[in-house]
Amino acid sequence: MVCESLHLKEFNTLGLAEPILRALTAEGYTTPTPIQAGVIPAMLDGKDIVGIAQTGTGKTAAFVLPLLQRVHEIRKMPYPKSCKALILAPTRELAAQIEDAIRTYGKYLKSSSAVIVGGAKAGPQIRAMSRGVDILVATPGRLEDLMSTGAVMLDQTNTVILDEADQMLDLGFMPAIRRIMQALPKKRQTALLSATMPKQIRGLAEDFLYKPVEVSVAPQSKPIERITQSVIHVEKANKRQILVDVMRREDIDRAVVFSRTKHGANKLAQVLVQNGIQADAIHGNKSQSQRVRTLDAFKAGKVPILVATDIAARGIDVDGVSHVFNFDLPNVPEVFVHRIGRTARAGATGIAISICDESEREFLRDIQKLIGFKIELDELSATDLVPEQAPEKPGGKRSAGRGRSKPAGTSGRGRARNGRAKPEGAKAGDQRTQEPRKAPARADASPTGENRKRRRPQKSKGRNGQGAQNALNGENGQSGKRNQNSQGSKGGRGNQGGENAGLSRMLGNIERSQRASGRRQSA
User: Fold this and answer.
1) Which end of the chain offers a freer environment for a tag, N or C, measured as fewer CB atoms within 10 Å?
2) What CATH number was assigned to the domain covering residues 227-385?
3) Where are the annotated segments for Disordered (predicted)?
4) What is the pLDDT, as a whole number, of residue 190?
5) List of E strands, 155-195
6) Which of 3-7, 152-156, 199-203 has the lowest mean pLDDT?
7) What are 232's strand-pairing partners?
8) Is the full-model pTM beyond 0.70?
C-alpha cells in the first residue's frame, strides 16, 4: 500500500498517549505532517514501514512518537546490555538530533535511552548500556564494535529503525547494516526511512522487511517548490570570489555552504572570514566537541554561515536557514536534493544558489534531469561560459596553438581526435601519413640490405672515420628519401641499384681510410 500526501487534523486522532500529546503541545505541535500522518498509525499497528520523504518533513518524529508509545504501553524493564528499540543513523550529529527528539517528546514518560557513536569515548557508552535501555540510537560502526565485545546485545530488540538509509548506503555502511540486521530476532518490526529510494535500498527492504506499508510523501527526489533556485556559471579559479560577491548581494539570515571535501570546507571558511563574512566549517576531521560547538554557534545565530561537507550536514536540523550555496556541485544528483532541503523548512521559503564551473556541467545536467526542470541562470553568470550561449568551435578545424603541428596519434595537447582536422590527405584513423615528419631520415634508417651490411665497420672512433661518417649521414639522408619514393614501383629497383653502386664506392673509400688510420695509430 502506498500512501501519498496524508493529512490528519490533529495528533490526538492518532492514538498517542496523553503524556506524549502533552509534550507535543508544549512544543507547539498540534497537526502532523504528511509523513507523520502515514507512518505513525501504521507503526502503532505493528506494520513494517518504508517511508520516503525529503529532509525537513518530520521523519524523526514520525518514528520516535510510536516508539515512545510502545515504551509507555509495555512498562517492562529492559535486559542488561540490551535495548527494546534500535535506531541506526549515519552520522553522530543525526544520532544526537534523534536523541534530543526522544528526550523532548518523552519528557513526561518514564523512559531510558542511550547514544552510541564513533568519535567519542567508549567507556561512558558501555556504562550507559550496562543496565539496558528502552531506546538505543547508534551509528553502525561503533555499534558493531561494542557488539563484538559483548557490551551490547540485540537478542531482546523488537523494533529497529533505519533512518536516512540512502545516506548510510553512500557512506558504505550497507555490509555493517546487513550484519546487524542478521543479529536481530527474526520476529521484529522494522521501519526504513529515506529521502530517496535507490535500487540497493529497495533491495535491503525486500530482504529484511515483511510486507511493508510504503508511505511516500511528495514526488520522489523532487525539491521543495518553495525554494528559489539559480545557477552561476564561472571559471573554476573565480569560484571563491563569486561566492563572496553573491553573499554580499544576498540578504542572508542563516546559510549553509556545501563543499565536496573537508580541506575545501576549511579553506572556504577561511576565505569568507578574510573577506569580513562570519563563517565556520564542520566536517568529519573535526573532533566531536568542535563539531558540537560549531553547530551550537550556528543554531544560536552567532555564526550565520556554516560551511559543511555532505556527511556532516546530515546532522543539521535548524529552522530559519534562508540560503543554501552549492560551492561544489555533487556528483550524485540525489545529494543535491538533500542539500537544498536544509532551507524552506516549516512552511518557509528559501533560496538555493549553485556555482558551476566547466568541469561540473555534467553534474548539473544530471541534477536538472532528476528534478525535472532547468535551473534559472543567475545574473552573475559569465555569459561566455553558459553552455547554450558559449560559441561552438567550428567542426573540422583547429585553432592555432602550440600543439597544432604534432602528428596524429601522438600524445599531448595537439593530437588530432574527436573529429578535429588531420593533415591534408590523411584519412580518418590513419596515423601513418605524418610519420616521415617525426625526424629527418638517417643513414641507419635506409631500407636496403646492402647498406645495413656495409655500415658495420663505421664503429671506429678515429677522427677521419668520424668525418667520413658525418658526410655519409648527410648524403645517405637524401638517398633514404629517394629510396622510399622509389620503392613503391616495380621499376624502382634499377634506380636503387645505381644509387647503391655510388654508395658502395664511397663506403669502400671510408674503409680504406679507416684501415690507414688504424695502421698509423698502431705505429
Assistant:
1) C
2) 3.40.50.300
3) 385-523
4) 98
5) 159-162, 189-194
6) 3-7
7) 355
8) no
